[in-house]
Amino acid sequence: MRALLQRVTQASVSVEDKVIGQTGPGLLILVCAMPGDDTATAEKLAAKIAKLRIFADDAGKMNLSLADSGGGALVVSQFTLAADTSRGTRPGFSYAAKPDQARALYEHFASAISALGIPTETGEFGADMAVSLTNDGPVTIWMDTDT
Question: C-alpha distances in angstroms, 5 versus 31, 34, 77, 92, 144?
């Protein structure tokens, strides 16, 4: 799986001008399932993200995890994280999991984050979504379970 983490002061996702998910301070997590991923992959990624120390402690050092900081997560599916831009000028998406598998893994990932005690909201898989955020830092981190 691939994920792009953005530390935020706030983030929301809307479908047809209606907010369907939001978070205050915490993470916007854009996530993409890849062929070969399974529920164990989703759980491993969720656990790593929840423990990643990218939030400031009282001394201003990035020493706290999402779980430690009490922040929330907004999880949004984004198959374009699997873009292949190696040829031409139009990206290919054959590296993304097929929709049925991707949906199941996206939902499992969001459930796994929530099960770790992180307040979690989501976007709508496959929908045309508008994502709004205020990046904090900015801190933006790319994660890939293959590396």
Answer: 9, 17, 12, 22, 11
Whose CA is closest to 110, among 98, 122, 124, 100? 122
Tokens matching residue 64: 């706290």
Please report the domains of the chain, with CATH numbers, ordered by start residue.
Answer: 2-144 (3.50.80.10)
List the beta bridge partners of residue 56.
62
pTM of the model: 0.95
**HSE on the CB side for 90, CA within 13 Å?**
1
Report how far residue 94's alpha carbon sits from residue 116's, in angstroms, rounded to the nearest whole number: 31
Q: Which of 41, 78, 120, 122 is catalytic?
A: 78
Q: Which amino acid is at 41?
A: T
Concerning whether 78 is annotated as a catalytic residue, the answer is yes
80 given a catalytic annotation? yes
CA 89 to chain centre: 26
pLDDT, tens only, 104-135: 999 999 999 999 999 999 999 999 999 999 99
Query: Active-site residue among 23, 41, 79, 120?
Result: 79
Residue 109 dihedral angles phi and psi, to the nearest 5°: -60, -50
23-35: per-residue pLDDT in tens?
A: 999 999 999 999 9
